[in-house]
Structure prediction request, 1059 residues.
Amino acid sequence: MNTTSNRKGKIKDINGPIVTIELPGVQNGEQVRIGSLGLYGEVISLEGNEALAQIYESTEMVRPGESVEGLGHPLSVELGPGLIGGIFDGVQRPLEAMFLKAGDQIPRGLSPLPLDRDKVWHFVPSENLEPNMPIINGAVLGRVQETETIEHRILVPPNISGELIELAPEGDYHLEESIGQVRDQQGEIHHLKLYHRWPVRRPRPYQSRDNGIEPLITGQRILDTFFPLLKGSKCAVPGPFGAGKTVVQHQVARWANADIVIYVGCGERGNELVDVLDSFPKLKDPYTGRPLMDRTLLIANTSNMPVVAREASIYVGITIAEYYRDQGYDVVMLADSTSRWAEALREVSGRLGQMPVEEGYPAYLASRLAAFYERAGRVDTMDCGKGSVTLIGAVSPPGGDFSEPVTSHTKEIIQTFWALSKELADARHYPAIDWVDSFSADVSTAAEWWHENIDREWEKRRSQALGMLARDAELSRIVNLVGPEALSSAQRWVLEGAALIKEGVLQQSALDPVDTFSSPEKQFMLLDLILSVYDAGADLIELGVPVQELSEMSVLARLRRCKELYDSNQIDQLNAFREEALNDFKEIHSEYAQRGEQPA
Amino acid sequence: MSAKEYRTASSARGGLLTVANVPNIAFGDRVHIRDQQGNTRNGQVIRSSDEEVLIQVFEGTSELDLESTWVRFLDEPVEIALSPEILGRIFNGLGEPRDYRPPIVSSLRRSISAAAFNPAARTYPKEFIQTGISTIDGLNSLVRGQKLPIFSASGLPHNRLAAQIVRQAKLPDDDSRFSVVFAAMGVSYADARFFQEEFASSGVLGNVVMFVNMADDPPVERLSLPRMALTAAEYLAFDLDRHVLVVMTDMTHYAEALREVATAKGDVPARKGYPGYLYSDLAEIYERSGRIKDRHGSITLVPVLSMPSDDITHPIPDLTGYITEGQIVLSRELHNQGIYPPVHISPSLSRLMKDGIGKDFTREDHPHVSNQLYALYARALETRNLASIIGADELSTRDRRYLEFADAFENRFVRQSEDEDRSIEETLNLAWDLLSTFPPQALTRVNETEIAKYHRQSV
Ligand SMILES: Nc1ncnc2c1ncn2[C@@H]1O[C@H](COP(=O)(O)OP(=O)(O)OP(=O)(O)O)[C@@H](O)[C@H]1O
Ligand SMILES: [Mg+2]
Prediction:
């Protein structure tokens, strides 16, 4: 990228991952390599002729006086075919290749290229392009089939536009081969390849922003039906340890109707990434029938990897997400966990001696968080129509306390909040998403979609269910004060109905092969079925049927199990069961109606 | 390798020693410090610049005087010597023998701060370990390569539980036992002796490596001790193909030592005075467990920690829970009722259980049985709460059944004796005894086939 020869300097001070260097002419944000191992890092501040660099790898046994090299460019990622299906570390080093090359542990100073240079790709140039045409940045030069389902659109890099001088014919090309030439306004000629580089801390350009219009369907009932998230929106999943943040994110990665899924394991467990690597190739994308890995990409900075690369990892992830967005795709990026990213910021700022404001975090925490989430959105791309990046960040509040800085700042930024609760998780109510603390600012937009595509009653049924859950909480408080005897039959039937909603709709096992995914049709059917049963029961109670008799109906046990008895393709069977269930109520109804007609 | 020696110490405070005018010392370098009595202390460089270096002194800096202190830079990282001879031995946190036997002589020396495992090199842990303890095997199963801590508190029998796990852990149909690495930080003599006698009486002593730092030993040594222990464990697992069970106690003392040093360094505190990097530091330790592709051995990690003031939201248990693959939580309430092991199942969790149990590993009904017991017990605890407010007599018959279940669960399922080694079959059958006190339609977490096969009313 940079043609000037690299500058040399030396190390002055080593304080863990923060190293003071002397490197004349170095720029803020510039990439450096330090010491005899050539460890990678990035300049984060300048003062006089000294600069501070954060190093992405352990600095053990590095010494003052060793040499430093400035690379002349900021931290950038390679963007081109071959990303999908891969696993990269926090600075986009390919982990699979590193494993084959260097063994079980990640050695220092190793820097294999992210994209495979030996691989050939079949390139098909865009038909509408001809030499001597003006061409803009982000224009589609041609296509490459990256995976069975993903057509990779080769874009003119964001910083280049001008006149197309040459475009390669259809054929097989290596990444480094030229597939076109563009002359810019200054007359400089750029050779374009199948890939380009882009600095991770600079958002990629687009034409304009647009509002989200369509919900992301995740196949998770409590998410889609109760707290919908729009494509292009931003969402946080906060919760104490073990409450289910990672499972929620894995479920979204598995079942969401997105084109591309980018999963960033930021400061979390190594085994959780292995879980994805093991299970995704065996699972089928419910929309395309192809292995899930064909649309998935992993970025891994596990909790034991150097902290500084953790800070970089989410920028690497979001930049790749934007790149696929620019190709016109709906991308979902999951970051588990943004708290670890914030902690990495804190660690670096602490080492720099910056003034902490709350719980050791620097004053710029809120603005960094906001700027990061701002990179989500649905946009008009330069040349590929609409594209979107949906951002879902896990938050891991210390002690599960949502008032801590990262959770509270995040809450102000996002539109959808899936709050996980320890109480629910302890009772093994999964997903442990608290229906009181969670919210979605986009229910009315989502409702339009549901009404059009699934059922006109969606919003009404959703509100009715939430209303019952709220009544349930109230009534339970009364029971806990004075006992169940204080409640009327109708009130006790509300408790029963709420229990049915919790067990039959809200609880959804990620581990059950049937229940793990619920199509929107099935979601609505289950909700509507349970509410219809509740309504039918409420009528009977008006007629004087004792609540006891209703609670003991055998059909209720089956109702609780419907979710795992019928999969998303068995809507007919579910309908048949519905008839059967409501019939049982009708029978009781006619029985009591007859009795009611007879004088006592 | 030319070691460099200096006599330019310029300050000594809280376990940290500063030495001036010592150019080009490597970060992380190992250091020998000779005090005025001529005794040698050990240290490690934790900051290095042209002008001065900062050294963390493992034995502490008390009674050091600046004039007569000699500092020798060894030009190597902190390492441990490894050979099969480490089995049966006892070391301190610096890897020096504390059993009055000669040091390990070996050409194989490894830095104790190993590079992180490449996630692409890991395999997902899946093999169920039978500990013989129902609350673990049945409800929070441990698998080979998992990191599953015990959250305890002062006065609770975590050591006895850890010892029972060490004694009984095996694969269900394989009698080979684990090699054990035992890491003790800041423990009392009584506790250290307890473990030693335990290992001796169960005949595993020759298969155990112990790293011990007593309560009155220098706290800074606690920082290197778990890393010594895990480097030894990695050697046993991945060089010698053994299945290793690492027991660490007490991680709270470790974290306190870390805080002590951090405070002396002037690091910005995050919560309760603990430095912001406590999470990453603990993760460096805990993430060294696991399974690696094409390697026969494994490292299963059971750290024990005491929750200060029984508070699970305290940074030490909290950050641990965020890193480990679940936790076994002990309860003072159960302990006070005389129930051993006092495992409180509600906050306990094993995240790797899902792939290690069921048809191919334990029994087909296991996942659902576990779920069902959890759901019933959660409901039973609510009912017990209610009963304590309105009185048990006010409860419906349905609710009373839950109350009885809670008692039976705690007294028959949770409670077992210290030498009771229940097979997973026995644990699951016991579970069905309890489930069968409910009519089948009340059991919605187990499926109809399982009910038909195991529910006592159906059989
Ligand atoms: N929908 C679900 N279905 C079944 N089990 C679930 C579900 N959600 C969570 N669990 C259970 O909860 C456990 C913990 O979930 P998870 O690992 O997602 O927690 P977490 O919030 O990410 O915790 P941490 O912050 O420590 O990473 C899982 O291992 C699984 O056993
Ligand atoms: Mg998680």
